[in-house]
From TrEMBL:
UniProt-listed SUPFAM superfamilies: Thioredoxin-like (SSF52833)
Domain Thioredoxin residue range list: 5-135
Keyword Protein biosynthesis: no
Gene3D superfamilies assigned to the protein according to its UniProt record, in alphabetical order: Glutaredoxin
Full protein name: TXD15 protein
The gene coding this protein: Txndc15
């Protein structure tokens, strides 16, 4: 019985169909733009596996993960790797439960099978995650290079406007101004005012 339990522990959780890589000499991460839909890149009728990264260009954790994720296609040439800006694909983020970024999901066909849940996001922990889920071993000679720091996924934070935060601040400021103007209607918010009104 013990030998069976060790065998089942070593069995991959996701049985990935490895893609044919003959004729492909450069393995790269593909980043989806605003108009591209993730579901167009995932084949629901196949058992091939794709690792998808949900990131934002202004998130420092996404930027520090970028060079490690950029090197993964060379480590696992038989798998596919995609990345998408979660702020531009908010419906997908909601659909797959992306609450925070970076978020990494392993898909088999079009179905999410596993989520990377480690706080230590390095090439080695990503390799271990893929191996534990699929049983596919990484190429041993792959390491993070200077090219991986340059792209395709940006490892430098971009400055951008967080429109949701800006809208929230404007809403809050307008509410405070409205409340100040309409003090009579919000006397109940000011401590001690309700007793003064009863006298």
């Amino acid at each position: 019985e013990d030998s069976n339990s060790t065998d089942s522990a070593k069995a991959p959780k996701v049985n990935c169909e490895e893609r044919n890589i003959t004729g492909i000499d450069r393995f790269m991460l593909q980043i989806l733009n605003v108009s591209q839909d993730l579901m167009d890149f995932l084949n629901p009728n196949s058992s091939d596996c794709t690792l998808v990264l949900f990131y934002t260009p202004w998130c420092r954790f996404s930027a520090s993960l970028a060079p490690h994720f950029n090197s993964l296609p060379r480590a696992f040439p038989t798998l596919r790797f995609l990345a998408l800006d979660a702020s531009q694909h908010s419906s997908l983020s909601t659909r797959f439960g992306t609450v925070a970024v970076p978020n990494i999901l392993l898909f088999q066909g079009a179905k999410p099978m596993a989520r990377f849940n480690h706080t230590d996001r390095t090439l080695d922990t990503l390799k271990d995650f893929i191996f534990n889920q699929t049983g596919i071993e990484a190429k041993r000679d792959v390491a993070v290079t200077e090219e991986d720091w340059e792209g395709p996924l940006p490892s430098v934070l971009t400055k951008g406007i967080d429109w949701l935060l800006l809208f929230s601040l404007l809403f809050l400021a307008s509410f405070v101004m409205y409340a100040t103007v309409r003090t009579e209607s919000i006397r109940w918010l000011i401590p001690g005012q309700e007793h003064e009104h009863q006298e």
